[in-house]
Amino acid sequence: MDINSKVNLNNNLKMPVIGLGTWQIRGKSAENSVLYALEAGYRLIDTASFYNNEEEVGNAIKKSGIPRGDLFITTKIWNSEHNDPEKAFNKSLKKLNLDYIDLYLIHWPVQERLKTWKILERLYKEGKCKAIGVSNFTINHIKELLNNSEIIPAVNQVEFSPYLYQKELLEFCKLKKIALEAYSPLTRGANLDDEKLADIARKYNKSTAQILIKWGIQHGLIVIPKSSNKDRIYENINIFDFNIAKKDMEHLDSLNDNLHYCWDPTNEL
C-alpha cells in the first residue's frame, strides 16, 4: 500500500484509503486545510452540508489546479434537508462548484431515510453522483435499507477507532460488500496520550495518531483523520512506510471500550 492506494467500492468506483475530514473546520481555515492536504498527497476530501464549509472546500479544489478526475469528494445530506433531498444535493453541488459528487451520503439515520434513499438512487442513476452511501448506520439500519432498496450503499461512514472497535459492524459490512469508512479515528484527541498506545507508537517510531490511522487501514477501512494543522496533515498521511505486526494489531483491538466521542446512533429508530 502507498499514498495512492484505493479501495474498490461495490460499483467498481475506486476510493482513496485515506482522506481529510473537515468537520468543525470553517472559513479560511477550511480552505487552507484542504490546500495543505492536496499538497501533501491526499485526494479524498470529506465534507457535509452540516459542516458549513462546502464553499471553502470548493475554492481549495479550484485553487489546487488538480484535475477533477484525480479527486474524490464526499458530501452529505443533513437531517433538516430530507423534505427535498434533490434540492439539498444541488445546493451542495453549487457550493462545491463541481459538476458531480463522487460520494453522496445520508448523514444520519433519520426517519425519512428510506424515502430519501430512493431519491439518491435516482441521482446516482442520472450520473450526478458516482456513488451513494450512508453514515452513522448500525447493522439494523443497513438491514432495513437492504430490504427496501434497489442499490446497495457503497459506503457506511461511522465513528471507528481501537477504542470504538465495531468489529461486528465491520464484518457485516464486509459481508455485504459495503466499504466501512472511519471518522474520528483519532478519538478527537482524547486517547492520543494513552500509554498503551504510546508504547506501540515508540516501537515503530511513529506518533500515536499515525498508529491509530494505520490500524484502521490495516483493518481494511477508509480513514479520514481531521486536522487544520499543516504539520499534522502531513504527518497523518505519512503512514505507508511501515506495517503494524499482528500481535500489536491484536493489542490495539483489545483497547475497545465502546467509547463514542461523537454521536451514538444505536438507539435511532
Report on this structure.
By secondary structure, the chain is α/β, with parallel strands linked by helices. The chain has a single domain, classed as TIM Barrel. Helices cover 39% and strands 16% of the residues. The chain has ten helices and ten strands. Strands 3-4-5-6-7-8-9-10 form an eight-stranded parallel sheet. A two-stranded antiparallel ribbon has the order 1-2. It is globular, with a radius of gyration of 18 Å. The chain starts with 5 loop residues before the first strand and ends in a 16-residue tail after the last helix. The mean pLDDT is 97.
How are the strands of the largest sheet arranged? 3-4-5-6-7-8-9-10
Count of helical regions: 10
Number of domains: 1
String of helices and strands:
EEEHEHEHEHEHEHEHHEHH
What name does CATH use for the topology?
A: TIM Barrel
Question: If classified by CATH, what would the architecture be?
Answer: Alpha-Beta Barrel
Look at the structure and name the CATH superfamily.
Answer: NADP-dependent oxidoreductase domain
Supply the CATH class.
Answer: Alpha Beta
Strand percentage: 15-25%
Termini, distance in Å?
Answer: 39 Å
Counting DSSP E segments of at least 2 residues, the number of strands comes to 10
Structural class comes to alpha/beta
Shape category: globular
Query: What Rg do the Cα atoms give?
Result: 18 Å
Characterize the biggest β-sheet: 8 strands, parallel
> Average pLDDT value?
97
Helix content: 25-40%
Low-confidence stretches: none
